[in-house]
Design goal:
A five-stranded antiparallel beta sheet has the order 1-2-3-4-5. It contains four helices and five strands, in the order ααβββββαα. With 143 residues, the chain is α+β, with helices and mostly antiparallel strands. 34% of the residues lie in helices and 22% in strands.
């Protein structure tokens, strides 16, 4: 994609109920505050706003915002490998590596509380592939 047909994230969120769009806007702010040099773009085929962080020789896809009609997710590509204290991430038993937090209308998005999760997602995504595999094996008991 050359960028000429890119969908702005705010426009993408407008297609959802106002409460979901507002949560999405708050989640975008939380990611921007935690990782100011992250790039975001709508990935229309996946129906998400994806976030990439600069890495040594490339960018690393580390998180996404996935709105749905009833709720919205802040997801982490390598969430199963993240080491952060706090609420349990959803997705175990559903996906091998991805994990997410789910927000529903009326929930409050606390950017300060989410910052350690978001920064840890960047750390894990930026690990060299071999180190990520070692971490995956340790997390799963070698399977």
């Amino acid at each position: 994609m050359d960028g000429s047909d890119a969908i702005p994230p705010a426009v993408f969120l407008e297609a959802y109920p106002p409460a979901i769009a507002a949560l999405g806007a708050d989640l975008r702010i939380a990611v921007a505050l935690a990782v100011p040099d992250a790039t975001e773009r709508v990935r229309p085929g996946w129906r998400v706003i994806g976030f990439d962080a600069p890495s040594r020789r490339r960018t690393a896809y580390f998180a996404w915002i996935m709105p749905e009609r009833q709720h919205i997710h802040l997801g982490f590509v390598h969430g199963a490998l993240m080491d952060v204290r706090g609420p349990r991430l959803d997705g175990s038993g559903i996906t091998k590596s991805a994990r997410w937090l789910t927000f529903t209308p009326g929930d409050r998005v606390d950017a300060e509380e989410l910052a350690p999760w978001i920064r840890e997602a960047v750390r894990v995504a930026c690990l060299p592939r071999g180190e990520r595999e070692i971490a995956r094996m340790a997390a799963t008991g070698g399977s």
